[in-house]
Design goal:
alpha/beta
């Protein structure tokens, strides 16, 4: 392990972050568990950053990948591709977007890049509205709209980005307001902002901010924003890279908590649909998707083997009602974690929905992030046999809990007990 870490440091970038003081090599997994190179078994509450959505080594997915790989793995989008068409048809029907078209990419970053390309071309504007505390990927254009300093290494960008209030409910100038007043204040802020700029192309927003620590606005905020956006012809892009496919439990898409004025114009997705395979994509109304007046292809987006995985994974997800399981088991897990942390002065908030739960840590008696404790809890949880993630934005630090959606009640209780012990040991 030490040799592999040394080799990693010699040939890979310094900025390529690794968890843990003694980094972990995961060698295999099954269900909700993974094993490391030393034979240690862990309950996985992070799923490769919310990517192993259904289960590790899910038989239906491994069988589909193996069978497709035995026929053909790849041909590019220059040729007809039956698995790609079949998955696009299913996603278009599930999207809620009328006359939807689907374009496949290899990642959420590339999906958001494509959405930005479509929106700016359609609207003939390079101005983008984004949410404070947001994260949309690591490419040049995605970094340019990311509202999270910890993940934004440059201010250079081809886009003019204006940041909007509302993605973080319990911090900022409107935190003391009730939900109705909070939404009204954010809407007024948006209206004021639009009076100071040329017409933007789109608002891009995560229904639940992932890297930012699983924060979210009150339900209905983006529906209220939509009324303002529509009045100016501004598109709404929902970044569902982390929230899609039923993870929030209450809804299949995160945007459905804000659907009073209809679906978004564009939805981006990735991560969980491939259950570990490299799949991302964009869904948009046909007039938007078809607005490009130059040729475009994707060499690796929609390749046959990843589409076979996506089809098998989506079928399993729907047939086993994993969205319902996320709602039921996630509800139990969040209440268990709230009870476990109720007397912990360093836990500011336990928040989230479904199997997307954030535990915000602060220094006791203050509102300041406790980065050291977050790192210590990560280590203690690992020692107890549990893997969790971490995140946060401006002056915040949060643990991120996002197990595969097939998590059982017994596994939820086991993970909560380990996490409770880790928090207690780091006070």
């Amino acid at each position: 392990m030490n040799d592999l870490h040394a080799r990693h440091r010699r040939v890979l970038p310094d900025w390529l972050a690794l968890y843990y003081d003694r980094p972990l090599e995961i060698t295999h997994g099954e269900g909700r568990h993974v094993w490391d190179a030393e034979g240690n078994r862990y309950l996985d509450f992070f799923g490769g950053i919310l990517t192993t959505m259904t289960a590790h080594a899910l038989p239906e997915v491994t069988k589909a990948v193996s069978e497709q790989a035995g026929r053909i793995i790849h041909s590019s989008t220059l040729y007809l591709n039956r698995p790609m068409v079949e998955l696009a048809e299913r996603i278009a029907r599930l999207s809620g977007i009328p006359d939807a078209r689907v374009f496949f990419t290899t990642s959420g970053t590339e999906a958001n890049d494509t959405a930005l390309l479509l929106a700016t071309a359609f609207r003939r504007s390079n101005t983008i509205l984004a949410m404070r505390n947001s994260y949309h990927g690591r490419s040049f254009s995605a970094v340019g709209i990311t509202g999270n300093r910890g993940w934004s290494p440059t201010s250079l960008s081809p886009l003019q980005t204006l940041y909007v209030h509302g993605g973080v409910r319990t911090r900022g100038p409107y935190a003391a307001l009730d939900d109705t007043e909070f939404i009204a204040a954010c809407v007024e802020d948006l209206k004021d902002l639009l009076g100071h700029t040329r017409p933007p192309a789109a608002l891009i927003a995560e229904p639940v901010q992932g890297v930012g620590g699983f924060t979210s606005p009150p339900d209905g905020l983006y529906a209220a924003f939509r009324e303002v956006l529509d009045a100016h012809g501004i598109l709404w892009i929902a970044d569902e890279v982390q929230t899609g496919w039923g993870r929030t439990g209450d809804h299949f898409w995160g945007w459905q908590a804000h659907d009073r004025n209809g679906p978004p114009d564009i939805v981006t997705f990735a991560k969980g649909i491939g259950n570990g395979m490299s799949v991302g994509g964009v869904i948009a109304r046909s007039e938007i998707m078809n607005c490009l007046d130059a040729n475009s292809i994707s060499t690796f987006g929609g390749t046959q083997v990843t589409m076979a995985a996506g089809l098998a994974n989506l079928t399993h997800l729907l047939e086993h009602d994993l969205q319902g399981n996320a709602r039921r088991v996630g509800g139990l897990l969040i209440e268990r974690l709230r009870a476990a942390t109720a007397q912990d002065p360093g836990v500011r908030e336990v928040r989230g929905r479904g199997l997307m739960i954030g535990i915000e840590l602060t220094r006791p008696g203050t509102d300041r992030a406790d980065l050291d404790r977050a790192a210590a809890v990560l280590e203690a949880a690992r020692a107890g046999g549990l893997l969790v993630g971490k995140g946060g934005g401006h002056s915040t630090s949060a643990l991120r809990v996002a197990p595969p959606l097939s998590l059982t009640v017994a596994e939820a209780e086991e993970g909560a007990a380990i996490l409770e012990s880790a928090l207690r040991s780091t006070r």
